Amino acid sequence: MHHTLREIAKVGVGLLIADIICGLWLSSAGLFPLTLLGITWSASMLVPGIVFDLALILLLAHCGWGMKLPISSPSERWLLIFVGLIFLAVALLHLVRLMFGIEIILSGAVIPLWLSWFGVIIAGYLSYSSFHFARRGRQ
């Protein structure tokens, strides 16, 4: 299981790098604004997207190449607990958005409500995994 999670993290890093390259290429080719899956992407959304992708790359690179499983040191355990709390908060915020139908507009683009289902599932799973590995390291 540990090996599989590391490999998934490595694939995720590759996908995020491809996302950054595609965004830069679309911007340089003048193809913005672009509507995809009901979301209109503009050039003004490029920099925040790249910053977000870079943050995810750092987290996934640490999990894929740097973190040794099972966890043995208290600092790694606290890192997993901290990351688990962040992912739990993200999952709960997506759930609240779904429950109350909150509309989110980023740079003039309305983010479809159905995208929050992915946020609940993915962030919830990442939160569970983080807490699971933090607890296993304690035993």
Short descriptors:
4 helices, 71% helix, globular, 139 residues, two-stranded antiparallel sheet
Radius of gyration using CA atoms only = 17 Å
Question: Largest sheet, order of strands side by side?
Answer: 1-2
**Number of DSSP E strands:** 4
Give me the number of helical elements: 4
Q: The biggest beta sheet, please?
A: 2 strands, antiparallel
Gap from first CA to last CA: 18 Å
Helicity range of the residues?
Answer: over 70%
> What structural class do the secondary elements suggest?
mainly alpha
Q: Any idea what the shape is?
A: globular
Number of domains: 2
Contiguous low-pLDDT stretches (5 residues minimum) are none
Please, what is the average pLDDT?
A: 82
Structure in words:
- The protein is mainly α and 139 residues long.
- The chain has helices at 2-28, 46-66, 74-100, 115-138; strands spanning 34-36, 39-41, 104-106, 109-111.
- Strands 1-2 form a two-stranded antiparallel sheet.
- Helix 1 runs antiparallel to helix 2 (46-66) and helix 3 (74-100) packs antiparallel against helix 4.
- The longest helix has 27 residues, at 2-28.
- It is globular.
Provide a concise account of the structure shown:
The chain is mainly alpha-helical and 139 residues long.
Task: Describe the secondary structure blueprint for this structure.
Elements: H1 2-28, E1 34-36, E2 39-41, H2 46-66, H3 74-100, E3 104-106, E4 109-111, H4 115-138
Helix pairs in contact: 1-2, 3-4
